[in-house]
Amino acid sequence: MIAHAGNVVIMTVEEPDNYDAVNSMNSFASDDLRPRGHQVTIVVGDRPLKHHFEGLVTALKNADLLILFSRRRFLPKDQMDAIRAHLNAGKPLLGIRTANHAFIPRPKDIVDAGLTIWPEFTHEVLGGENAGYETQGLPYTVNAPAGIQTSLLDGVNAANIRGHQSLYKVLPLAADATPILMGIPGAGTTTPAQPVAWIRSYGANKAGIFYTSLGAPEDMRIADVRRLLVNAVNWLIKP
Fold first, then answer.
1. Terminus of the chain with fewer CB atoms < 10 Å: N or C?
2. What is the pLDDT of residues 73-105, one digit of tens each?
3. DSSP state of 120
4. What percent of the chain has pLDDT over 70?
5. What is the Cα–Cα distance from 3 to 18, expressed in whole angstroms?
6. How would you class 229 by CB atoms within 10 Å of its CB: exposed for 0-12, middle for 13-18, buried for 19 or more?
7. HSE of 59 in the Cβ direction (CA atoms, 13 Å)?
8. Contact 214/164 with Cβ under 8 angstroms?
9. CA end-to-end span of the chain, whole Å?
């Protein structure tokens, strides 16, 4: 795959249920993206206040790609509007694991005045569902659908990938979504195989979308997962 360097913005948050995302995204930026010529800005949420991503609006103005690895955050209107504007302009998004429920409040959550939610994001933008997770039959194995041919899998051996954290239940996918990798739970569960990586486009200007439910710390230590994410960045950033 020919790489085209671009301006990448990573939106993430540090909290116990977000899979050490800040550390893994710092490592991904320093070890995998910047050496390939990408400019990377990491915007960490809850600074200065919870649900605020200071600097996001400015960073997105010149972004070629937004990487989203954040969960259950409800943004000030200008910050959510900046994400919408990025997508509506046809600019791509790479969602990692908890992006599956990035802007969805739980029933017990209180959304403060001035903050906005976007529960439809999971279905409308990512093209999957947030239908829970399977914790039995771990670690789950991963394979590529029969006949799939894509540069996203260049240098990726799916047989090397194991999912040691929960397998997200994401079915059904949007009609235009193409699964790239499937997670196969082991013995002790009746949960069917679930897509763990797929692509699609969003909106009138066809913003490229790549989502993977991989991204737990154990996943990010697997070279084939890192290669998959690098391939996704290169695939999403057009020359």
1. C
2. 999 999 999 999 999 999 999 999 999 999 999
3. T
4. 98
5. 29
6. buried
7. 21
8. no
9. 12
